[in-house]
């Protein structure tokens, strides 16, 4: 979503908070989906399997998709939210140097994805987060 940082009082820090909102919402949805799935399992005694199983599969997909989106979006490569968060954390001099990578970020992202580096890096994090959320 396009955001105009000119509306912020402290553009660097406020942009970081805006960038955390997307992954935060994804993690929130994953936790809610996990809670609904656990509640469904508890209350499903006596309900037909053909009714319960599709719901549980949809909730499991919701959990995985939302965790995957949150973790992927936190990768600190432009144009992903992780790069905006890193820009808010870095000292101003380093942030200026890092911001110069933005025109090449999408290409770097594609290269990392198609070489398998990015999936190899984020899949263990996704699996760990899914284990935490599902308990």
Explain this structure to me?
This protein is mainly alpha-helical and 135 residues long. It has helices spanning 11-43, 49-73, 81-89, 92-99, 105-114, 117-134. The radius of gyration is 19 Å and the shape is elongated.
Could you give the count of β-strands?
0
Largest sheet: none
End-to-end distance: 32 Å
Oligomeric composition of the shown chains: single chain
Low-confidence stretches: none
Order of helices and strands: HHHHHH
Figure out the total of helices.
Answer: 6
**Cα-atom radius of gyration:** 19 Å
Strand content: under 5%
Overall shape: it is: elongated
Helix content: over 70%
Produce the secondary structure layout.
Blueprint: H1 11-43, H2 49-73, H3 81-89, H4 92-99, H5 105-114, H6 117-134
Write a concise synopsis of the structure shown.
The chain has about 140 residues and is an all-alpha fold. It contains six helices and no strands.
Give me some keywords for this one.
135 residues; mainly alpha; 76% helix
């Amino acid at each position: 979503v396009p955001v105009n940082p000119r509306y912020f009082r402290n553009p660097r820090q406020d942009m970081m908070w805006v960038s955390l909102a997307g992954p935060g919402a994804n993690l929130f949805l994953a936790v809610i989906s996990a809670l609904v799935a656990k509640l469904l399992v508890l209350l499903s005694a006596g309900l037909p399997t053909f009714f319960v199983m599709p719901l549980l599969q949809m909730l499991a997909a919701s959990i995985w998709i939302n965790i995957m989106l949150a973790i992927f979006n936190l990768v600190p490569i432009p144009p992903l939210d992780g790069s905006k968060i890193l820009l808010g954390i870095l000292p101003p001099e380093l942030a200026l140097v890092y911001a110069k990578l933005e025109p090449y970020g999408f290409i770097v992202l594609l290269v990392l994805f198609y070489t398998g580096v990015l999936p190899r890096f984020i899949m263990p994090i996704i699996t760990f987060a899914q284990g935490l959320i599902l308990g």
